[in-house]
Amino acid sequence: MQGLTAGYGGPAVIRNIDLRVGTGEAVALLGRNGAGKTTTLLSVAGALPIRSGAVALDGRPATGLPSFRVARLGLSLVPQGRRIFPALSVDENLTLGARRGAALSTVQELFPVLAERARVFGSNLSGGEQQMLAIGRALMTQPRLLLMDEPSEGLAPQVVQQIGELVGRLRREGDLSILIAEQNLALALAVADRVYVLERGEIVHEGTAAAFGEDRALQRRYLGV
């Protein structure tokens, strides 16, 4: 994305965002609450109108397209709060938006618990299981770029660790690109190659995850940690 500016009807929430995710790369989008991380992901996914700037996926323009057409270009979003369908079973959630050729067994191999609970309604899953289902549902669209909005939110430490291990595995086993907006700094640094830091809707830092992880002064300045 280049020069991305967007908002919700009032003043712009994000301004002049330049951000790149390479093929097979994981990038973390960091920032305090209200910095504009979710707005950035929703704008890229076509769920929020873009006021100015450009978005492209694999060189194909996506600026201003509705979310379903952005999805067809190869983008999938794991939204904050999971937003699974509680009245549908696990398998129904997974297959509802699956792209032709997507194999249910692939997601079940990544998340064995989803295979075990295939006929269970989404409302009867734990928070961790719901997050796994949300990720699995996104993967059923066979994306080239996976957006993950606060995937660790509200989860137990052992489940957060599982999510981190999954992201690492997805990166190793294919050319999937990942943009993850995350408050959990340890998780973000563990999975990302590079980081961008948002403050008041603007990019204030860009660099490698390794360098940011070693710079406590930068972490305190921008994240308060």
Briefly, what is this?
By secondary structure, the protein is α/β, with parallel strands linked by helices.
Layout of secondary structure:
Layout: E1 2-7, E2 12-17, E3 26-30, H1 37-44, E4 50-54, E5 56-57, E6 60-61, H2 67-72, E7 75-78, H3 90-96, H4 104-110, H5 112-116, H6 127-139, E8 145-149, H7 157-173, E9 177-181, H8 185-191, E10 194-199, E11 202-208, H9 209-214, H10 216-223
Parallel strand pairs: 3-9, 3-10, 7-8, 8-9
Antiparallel strand pairs: 1-2, 1-4, 5-6, 10-11
Description of the molecule:
- Helix content is 37%, strand content 24%.
- It is globular.
- The strands form three sheets. The chain has a six-stranded mixed β-sheet, with helices on both faces. Strands 2-1-4 form a three-stranded antiparallel β-sheet, covered by helices on one side.
- The chain has ten helices and eleven strands.
- By secondary structure, it is α/β, with parallel strands linked by helices.
- 40% of the residues are buried.
- It starts with a strand and ends with a helix.
- The longest helix has 17 residues.
